[in-house]
Amino acid sequence: MPVTKFSTPEKYKYQNGFNSYHESEAIEGALPIGANSPQKPPYGLYAEKLSGTAFTAPRSENLQTWLYRILPAAAHGPFEPQEPTTYSANLENSCQKMHHIPNQLRWDPFDLDETVDWVHSLRLVAGAGDPTMKSGIGIFIFAAGKNMEPREAFYSADGDFLIVPQHGVLDIQTELGHLLVRPNEIAVIPRGIRYRVTLPTGPVRGYILELYQGHFQLPELGPIGSNCLANARDFQAPVAAFNEDTTLTWRLLSKFNGRLFAAKQNHTPFDVVAWHGQYYPFKYDLGRFNTVGSISFDHPDPSIFTVLSAPSDHSGTAIADFVIFPPRWLVAEDTFRPPWYHRNTMSEFMGLIHGDYDAKTGGGFRPAGASLHNVMSAHGPDASTHEKASNADLKPAKAGEGSMAFMFESCLMVGVTEWGLKTCRKMQEGYNSASWEPLKPHFKRPDGAKRDAEVG
Ligand SMILES: O=C(O)Cc1cc(O)ccc1O
Ligand SMILES: [Fe+2]
């Protein structure tokens, strides 16, 4: 059975292409022609620039967008910090000490929580670095059951959100237009873009990687050539859509160094009539990923499954890679087909959207759960997977049918928050011992002799 691909409901319109220069106008003629900020932009709109890179970033990296809107984003009251006892409590964790531990860690599925909305559902579970230094990443779990208030919008000044829904549907109204994001799809909302999340099918749950530095790119394809993996044309950006309200009171929420702030304004933030540029939110259907693998022997590095990569300053070394494990055919001959046992200089945070992950058949890695194998924390198939795979009949076999696991892989050592370690109460006791301690030695000397332990 081929992998399922989503269709687009009629209400939503997208423009296709990764890192493309897009332009969109909800009213014909709203985009100025041949200029960005004419003395009087069309229809009495204000021109506003939103930059995602330094003005002077090289052309190949430069990301910015021009917005043509009814009132500028600056027209709001002062931001006030929100009390931790109210709803910034979840984000608070980012300001707390992280626990850095070499143990292999695994979490049972995180609970749904119907009492909170998107903003108040964000739980920092792990991370590295610091938003104030624009360095590192934050890994969040979200679980919400309420729409954001009708006149509320949110943005993060800390980084780009890579959103991986596991359960339920996210309807995301952004300044640049609407995105509908379902499990097995992902969305990226860049730093600063204001948005409001509603839940058309009820409760939602999933994972977020917040990138405090740089932006996601498509990985290089090297000898693979000019297609495969995630193809650029399958990334979808919204089209301009606006409201006209300039009288009602809105609440603008800002995530700023992991803290929540709120300001009032007397007009909708969703008043962008037209925009053009390369800095915009987008979505991608993981079912469109063109998976490549070994057609001869051996298990290749999981980098062949990279959807998006946020590079560090060192070539080939990512601050964060977003890697998926889609359904795929395994045909390698004379090969131990699951991942090899390994210790990695990168850290690996994994989640499961649905199904089973083929490297862990022992039952403990479940949809909506997670695992963290930190820098040099040894891991690999659990004992039951090893037993099965080393005795399997190696005919072509479909792995991961009906399943989608993913990994946030980072060159940074990842710490775990107090919430992730204790408060969430999902940390599995004995993950390590259940997975790898049952492994038996199979070593046999070539002469068949058994000897006592040798000295030295
Ligand atoms: O640890 C894991 O399960 C992720 C992983 C998968 C794979 O195919 C090779 C290496 C690797 O880290
Ligand atoms: Fe691994």
Quick summary:
InterPro entries: HgmA_C (IPR046451), HgmA_N (IPR046452), Homogentis_dOase (IPR005708), RmlC-like_jellyroll (IPR014710), RmlC_Cupin_sf (IPR011051). The protein has 456 residues and is mainly beta.
| Low-pLDDT sequence parts | 85-89
Strand order of the largest sheet: 20-13-10-15-8-7-28
Portion of residues in beta strands equals 25-35%
CATH topology type of the largest domain: Jelly Rolls
The CATH class designation of the largest domain is Mainly Beta
C-alpha Rg, in Å?
A: 24 Å
Helix content: under 10%
Can you list the ligands bound to this structure?
A: 2-(3,6-dihydroxyphenyl)acetic acid, fe (ii) ion
The assigned CATH architecture of the largest domain is Sandwich
Whole-number mean pLDDT: 94
Q: What oligomerization state is this entry in?
A: single chain
CATH superfamily of the largest domain: Jelly Rolls
Q: Quick one: how many beta strands? A: 28
Cα separation of the termini = 55 Å
Using brief descriptors, characterize the structure shown.
single chain; 456 residues; mainly beta; Jelly Rolls; 2 domains; 7-stranded antiparallel β-sheet; 6-stranded antiparallel β-sheet; 28 strands; globular; binds 2-(3,6-dihydroxyphenyl)acetic acid; binds fe (ii) ion; Homogentis_dOase
List the helices and strands and how they pair.
Layout: E1 14-16, E2 22-25, E3 46-51, E4 64-69, E5 80-81, H1 84-92, E6 105-107, E7 123-130, E8 135-144, E9 152-156, E10 160-167, E11 170-174, E12 177-181, E13 185-189, E14 195-198, E15 204-211, E16 236-238, E17 250-256, E18 259-265, E19 272-277, E20 282-285, E21 306-311, E22 318-325, E23 328-330, E24 347-354, E25 370-373, H2 383-391, E26 397-399, E27 404-410, E28 415-416, H3 418-423, H4 431-436
Parallel strand pairs: 9-17
Antiparallel strand pairs: 1-16, 2-19, 3-4, 4-19, 5-18, 6-25, 7-8, 7-28, 8-15, 10-13, 10-15, 11-12, 11-14, 13-20, 17-18, 21-22, 22-27, 23-26, 24-25, 24-27
